[in-house]
Write a structure and sequence with these properties.
The chain is built from 10 helices and 12 strands. With about 270 residues, the protein is an alpha/beta fold. The protein is globular.
Length: about 270
């Protein structure tokens, strides 16, 4: 059994679950890129991969997340090639794709299908779409990510594993191809596996709501967006959007525009 996840925190949580249930024993493979953001044109070609790498380097440059550049630019194509070699060597081996109700997981699922379409019958999906779980306090909640689920609850989740159907292998890659050809910057999950695309500034209008007349650190603005906003997106992306709006001259800024805690933002001072 090989497990696929799309977030480092998810991998750690799943590993804890495996330690509780030996029937889940298997290798955990993480897809490191976040295909919910950035260019997708020719994403399976060397040129397309290079364009994504260049885009990520631009987004992560000069801030808190520059050190993660090497990790985010990890070659997922090579990761999947290695995984496929294991599947092809052992015909009894199966692949389990773990996905929660968020755009990163769903985009990762779509991206992955291109590689595993010849293995129909051995590819399983555990899609935790609007399913209730019990948190550490004993309350029912609906997780947006696998990392939110207590390890013991994974034992319940494993019962949801099902084969990716022939119909899904036929229809879902076509949907992904369409999204890739549109080549917009943001993919937002509307429900189920339905993704809607937007331009790169999609989150700006909501992010602006948390910029005030008084000075605030960029880290506070980003935290407020993530804790109160409708959509989820990475801190790295939001930091890039704040820097972009500053470059456009939309706000006053003080401090070095680099790490989130290094600079503050507010409305323009009145003349």
């Amino acid at each position: 059994m090989i497990h696929i996840v799309f977030n480092e925190a998810d991998a750690a949580n799943l590993q804890s679950a495996i330690e509780l249930d030996e029937t889940l024993q298997g290798e955990i493979v993480q897809i490191k890129d976040n295909y919910a953001v950035g260019p997708l044109d020719n994403v399976y070609t060397e040129q397309g991969m290079l364009e994504r790498n260049q885009w990520w380097k631009m987004v992560l440059e000069g801030g808190d997340f520059k050190h993660t550049s090497e990790e985010l630019l990890h070659n997922d194509h090579k990761t999947i090639e290695d995984t496929l070699e294991k599947l092809n060597t052992n015909n009894e081996e199966t692949l389990w794709i773990w996905a929660a109700q968020n755009s990163q997981d769903v985009c990762g699922y779509y991206w992955l299908l291109q590689y595993v379409k010849e293995l129909q019958g051995r590819i399983f999906i555990l899609y935790l779409n609007n399913l209730p779980f019990i948190n550490e306090k004993g309350n029912i909640f609906y997780p947006n990510s696998l990392s939110e689920i207590p390890a013991k609850e994974f034992l319940k989740a494993k019962k949801l594993a099902r084969e990716v159907t022939l119909s899904e292998f036929e229809v879902d890659p076509d949907e992904w191809t369409k999204l890739c050809s549109e080549n917009k910057g943001i993919r937002v999950l509307e429900g189920g596996k339905k993704l809607i695309q937007h331009d790169y500034e999609f989150y700006d209008s909501e992010l602006k709501k948390y910029i005030m007349p008084d000075w605030q650190k960029a880290s506070k603005i980003i935290h407020n967006f993530l804790s109160k906003g409708k959509h989820t997106i990475s801190e790295a992306y939001l930091l890039w959007r704040l820097k972009t709006m500053i470059e456009m001259g939309l706000y006053d800024v003080q401090g070095k525009v680099a790490n989130m805690k290094d600079f503050e933002i507010k409305y323009h001072s009145k003349a």
